[in-house]
Design brief:
The protein is built from 13 helices and no strands. By secondary structure, the chain is mainly alpha-helical. The protein starts with 5 loop residues before the first helix and ends with a helix. Keywords: DNA-binding, Transcription, Transcription regulation.
């Protein structure tokens, strides 16, 4: 029998769906402490030390207060992590809502690159996405911006969620792996270029991997003196163009199907009308 955690059995919730009364500072509470400062310190710690080392005690020490002082402002560590997720979403540069005349492709590219920049700046973030509902105002502003852009792509409404999933799941997956590379390099005290050089040198001369290196084009990193970051940037940009081209192709397919359906309907109606008219005239 599968064992399900108590948390998984609970009704999905979010700090953004729970009304919490305003905090009234007691006389023995630290002066100058507020929720914004707590969330900002949380983000700093997560960026510097990672998700695995984060704890309420560590956060309290960073703030110079007791852990109980932090709990005056949040009920749980989960709530604080969700607040941190929304705080960093505020770094995203969103298109102007009034820019309806802008090319949706350019805006989608911009949003995808912004999302990538966010995930790479905060490598703990991909691990939390999906674990929390993430209904914060900044996160929802990003979601709404992507929906507005996609609404102008010409795809049917039924296809919008699938198209956005294709783009942003790609960004998520790409950045999750790149973020792991960065985390490993940081732990080893090396650079991404040094790490990639070691990998290439380890497999380049091995007969088992010769065909793979040649077919995949990864050998270009060593042959052309390309930096690891440049290679990843190029791969990301090209893969994103494939996503956008796929959306355009699907839009044209949907339009063609709609035109055929309209044509079949008109043809059927005309045939019935002509047949009845001709039959009446002949009689």
């Amino acid at each position: 029998m599968a064992v399900t955690s108590s948390r998984a059995k609970k009704q999905p919730t979010s700090v953004w769906l729970t009304e919490r009364p305003p905090v009234k500072r007691k006389a023995d509470q630290p002066a100058g402490l507020d929720l914004d400062k707590i969330v900002a310190a949380t983000v700093r710690l997560l960026d510097a030390e990672g998700l695995a080392k984060f704890s309420m005690r560590r956060l309290a020490a960073e703030l110079g207060v007791t852990a109980m002082s932090v709990y005056w402002y949040v009920d749980t560590k989960d709530d604080l992590l969700e607040l941190a997720m929304d705080a960093v979403a505020g770094e995203l540069d969103l298109p102007d809502e009034s820019g309806e005349q802008a090319d949706w492709r350019d805006q989608l590219r911009h949003l995808a690159f912004e999302y990538r920049k966010l995930l790479l700046a905060h490598t703990w973030l991909p691990k939390l996405l999906g674990e929390y509902l993430n209904f914060g105002p900044r996160s929802m502003a990003f979601s709404n911006a992507t929906l507005r852009v996609m609404a102008r792509s010409g795809l049917s409404k039924e296809s919008t969620s699938g198209a956005l999933a294709a783009v942003y799941q790609f960004v998520y997956g790409f950045c999750s792996i790149q973020g792991q590379h960065r985390a490993r390099c940081r732990a080893e005290g090396t650079t991404l270029d040094e790490y990639f050089h070691r990998v290439v040198e380890a497999v380049q001369g091995h007969p088992r991997f010769a065909e793979t290196m040649e077919l995949s084009g990864d050998g270009r990193y060593a042959r052309e003196g390309m930096s690891a970051e440049q290679m990843l940037d190029d791969d990301f940009a090209f893969a994103l163009e494939l996503q956008i081209a796929g959306i355009e192709a699907m839009r044209e397919r949907q339009r063609a199907a709609a035109e055929r359906a309209d044509g079949d309907g008109n043809g059927s109606g005309n045939g019935d009308s002509n047949g009845d008219g001709n039959g009446g005239g002949t009689d």
